[in-house]
Amino acid sequence: MATNKTVFFMIGVLLVVLGVFMLAPYIMQLVYNENNHSFISSAFVTIFIGILFILSNLEEEFKLNLRQTFLFSTLAWLMVAIFGSLPFLLSPEKFTFSEAFFESMSGITTTGATIITNLDNSPKSILLWRAIMQWLGGIGIVVMAITILPLLKVGGMQLFKMEGPDTTEKILPRTIEVATIIISTYLALTLLCVFFYWLFGMSIFDSISHAMTTIATGGFSTHNDSIGFFKNPNIEITASIFIVLGSIPFISYLKFVKGNKKIFFQDFQIKGFVYLILVSTLIMFLYLLFINYESNVLDKVRISSFNVISILSGTGYVTDDFGLWGNFSLIFFLFLMFIGGCAGSTACGIKIFRLQMLVIFLKNQIKKLFYPNSVIINKYNNQKISDEFINSVIVFIFSFLFIFFIIAMLLSISGLDFLTAISGAASAISNVGPGLGGVIGPDGNYKTIPDLSKWILSIGMLLGRLELLAVLVLFFPSFWRN
Question: What is the pTM of this model?
């Protein structure tokens, strides 16, 4: 029988890995003579605690049952966020614990919300660490989305289960096998993105930092003006391409490696994602024409597509303050925030496949009104799907919207104005990053909001990243009973 020792052993391994990655920013501290040893201290503490977890939870055979898999999913992200905040706390930048945890949680959940007001003059080590956090968070959520969440049957994610074990008891060997392919693909895409960023004018440091946050669809930048700092159309096009590559299901890359060379053209979710990008870009392009936005036609197309892809995927890169484009752009981008990218990718939000399932459900209900005695078989991607599956998708969408309103109300109680509360809640639960309005909009940040708001948003980020129910189920006593 599996025990909680397996959970804490695996968390120990994650902490050791996290501590090792802290050594990269420490090298930056030495290279740039930052005269600070916050990262080597943080690495020592993190690795030491990780080793303690490992040594105190050794077993002959490691297994996870269903409940422990849920527990691990939540604790892993929480512990990484806590220890990931150490470099911020120990840095000379004088982060409070609320700010450090918020920045760390925003990083590991690939949200991209920040409290740092002057990125251009921030230490290189801190900027690199933010990028590393998002890069690791991107890998983590993809591995979970393919190996763990389908077995937990969270919000219809069972549709994306890889061939292999049907129970969590045999998940560990399978996870290692899948993670190897994912990390190889993820690393290859990152290096390719680094090359093109460098080719089009970024420095090596900016190229590496932005490539990691691009593939992770995280959106952390090394400059206050984000991608807009470079004022380079080629960089914006590169960002758009690699954001899309990070936003499609990584299970498709696995299938491509295994011989299905047409998967990217056959997958229903990928086609839906591409269609949505094209339609949304057209809508925003026509809107920019309507408001006489000062640029030529090609620039309008590029600006429209970049902002649509950035917001839809949850990346949150900006080139311009779209809040100044009028009320329509605010409502439209708020809508895109909720949708998100594809399941099994680094993107966030409700996910394309759930909205597709909702459309299928509504079409079938309308058909039944005309043909009440007909037998309608629900299919998605040529797979027959049960009513139970559709119900789980509908429950997830309802839960997503319900929790969004709860977070928005809590934010308003904590002192935020209506637009900031609404967009902040949407940004957190959809893991987008920038909100709307003058406070947390594209030209703002989260520094000035109350600490209580930061903690509410941090919880929202965690809920959104782990598909809501994987966290909420832990608070039901019946779940823990035999």
Answer: 0.90
